[in-house]
Write a structure and sequence with these properties.
This protein is α/β, with parallel strands linked by helices and 252 residues long. It contains 7 helices and 10 strands. The radius of gyration is 21 Å and the shape is globular. The protein binds S-adenosyl-L-homocysteine.
Length: 252
């Protein structure tokens, strides 16, 4: 009997932020391949499975390990940081498994973007401010299609969750400014959201680069930006408005 491979979202770091389903699958697994550079090792401490860190492996080696375990009838887990659908490089792994006729499932996880919003205690979709959240990144060694450059995205004025870019903070600020975000737009950087050594730096577009330079933050950080982060009083949502009836609540 062969058992489908499970891609599991580990969440942002705090071992309690994995889903119950993900936790159960980890506990029952016999072989776990995890992204050691970002996944908290505490998640795989004490499991019965053999655990492999993929940090130094290439795609061929990862697939070989997974395929061998699957072929031996083992319960195989590929553990990814945050949610596997966001910058998880799972597509290429799934394509390889498709070619090998190996079935798999994906268990979602808490993305670091959402853990960062929680750390900041912000709502990213504030009525009459913005109703859109964009997950994106600054182009670096991995290119970004021109139509989605930060400069173009900035013109939308939405809440942005910018991954993989804190080392290029100056460039991020220049692009966002060129795209139309005013200098006083609130921006925050959360390093290692939900880890014990989480760090938060808040600022405005005009001063964040210097604040980051003066901090110890260099990587594994999320940049959140947009008017939604401002602490000024905003409109209240219709959802709980006493004068707004909807499917579950009628005005009396
Ligand atoms: N799939 C992951 C993202 C992987 S890409 C997710 O959904 O979160 C790696 C990038 O994610 C890092 O460069 C950083 O921008 C962000 N990241 C991952 N973990 C983080 C954390 N705990 N706190 C802040 N940012 C994090």
């Amino acid at each position: 009997m062969h058992i489908p491979v499970q891609f599991v979202g580990a969440g942002p770091g705090d071992p309690d932020l994995i889903t119950l389903k993900g936790r159960r699958i980890l506990d029952e697994a016999e072989l776990i391949v995890y992204a050691g550079s970002l996944v908290n090792p505490a998640l795989v401490e004490g499991v019965q499975a053999r655990v492999y860190d993929s940090a130094r492996m290439n795609l061929d080696e990862i697939i070989e390990l997974i395929a061998t375990g699957y072929g031996q009838g083992k319960k195989v887990v590929r553990l990814h940081t945050g949610d596997p659908a966001i910058y998880g490089a799972i597509r290429e792994q799934m394509q390889r498994l498709d070619e090998l006729d190996i079935p798999y499932n994906v268990i979602p996880g808490v993305s670091s973007a959402l853990a960062s919003a929680a750390a900041l205690k912000v709502e990213l979709t504030v009525p009459e401010v913005t109703q859109t959240v964009i997950f994106t990144r600054q182009a670096g060694r991995t290119p970004v299609p021109e139509a989605e450059s930060l400069r173009k995205i900035a013109a939308i004025g939405a809440s942005l969750c910018i991954f993989l870019s804190v080392s290029m903070i100056e460039k991020v600020v220049a692009e966002l400014t060129a795209g139309g975000y005013p200098d006083d737009t609130p921006i925050a950087v959360v390093e290692k959201a939900s880890w014990p050594d989480q760090q938060v730096v808040r600022g405005r577009l005009v001063d964040i680069a210097e604040k980051i330079r003066n901090s110890a933050i260099r990587k594994t950080a999320m940049i959140l930006v947009g008017r939604a982060l401002a602490d000024d009083k905003t409109a209240e949502s219709k959802l709980y408005d006493a004068g707004f009836s909807h499917e579950y609540r009628r005005i009396t």
